[in-house]
């Protein structure tokens, strides 16, 4: 099952809103199709969103080429990127990928629009291929770090940070899958992840398909499960990481970090370096997306509360860096992240 596929100038996206019961692909022939898919979470997970957006820019560039307007090509393309950037405000990989695409277009601004479209397609394919390689490298680093004791581990994860959230093997689930390959996974407890149940619909489904032992729990069972089932470590993905290591991830991660701290359980973040937003000093500056109230008042069309019930529905929360044991990246591990540790890591790797 591929999360996304680029074939003969068309982007095919696995519709994750209907998993695990239906496997169907959305056909995206315009940048507006990609924007909608990102907005409704048909494609989700920070790395996958970035790759999808890169292809969305290609589709947008082609539309300008086919129907030129009054604006210069580069200006019109920037407008499309700005629109795509608004589809999800928290996931920084979306912004990163769009910046990469615009930089590429501007670097070739002296060439014909037709030539620029070809260059942009090559760039999007490169971003796609890089994500696959990044995932593989991250899985190795994470498995080496978490699996140091060389014994079967009981793990807990939240939301979905697997192949379905990326173009490769996944971030957090990529690490878990590598640990499983090495014979070091006893059990994975997957949080249900309300209100859209990505843990239930996607993570449990993905781990079962890979033969990884998994048990599904509801979000409010996590603390008791961590205590009663002797969870060794928690590993999750990320949507944006500030310069001091504060990490935005799916709502509920902050609560897990607090419980883990009390119980002495290490919390690991697995995320590519593109997830860092070092323009932000700390997590308080990360924009938090608030989604439709109907996601809480209903599920797949079935009402779960009165239609006029007031709702607060933040999609993400921020885990402070002091609650994080380490951040796993494709270049290595940032242990006990803080501003100095993050800066030293980036300096070391000349990033």
What would you note in describing this structure?
The chain has 351 residues and is an alpha/beta fold. The chain has helices at residues 31-39, 46-66, 73-85, 92-107, 113-146, 172-181, 198-209, 222-228, 253-263, 294-297, 339-348, and strands spanning 4-7, 10-14, 25-28, 153-157, 185-191, 214-217, 233-236, 240-242, 247-250, 267-270, 276-277, 298-299, 302-303, 316-319, 326-329, 332-335. The strands form 4 sheets. Strands 6-5-4-7-10-15-16 form a 7-stranded mixed β-sheet, with helices on both faces. Strands 11-8-9-14 form a 4-stranded mixed β-sheet, with helices on one face. Strands 1-2-3 form a 3-stranded antiparallel β-sheet, covered by helices on one side. A hairpin with a 2-residue loop joins strand 12 and strand 13 (302-303). Helix 3 packs antiparallel against helix 4. The two termini are 33 Å apart. The model has no long low-confidence stretch (mean pLDDT 96).
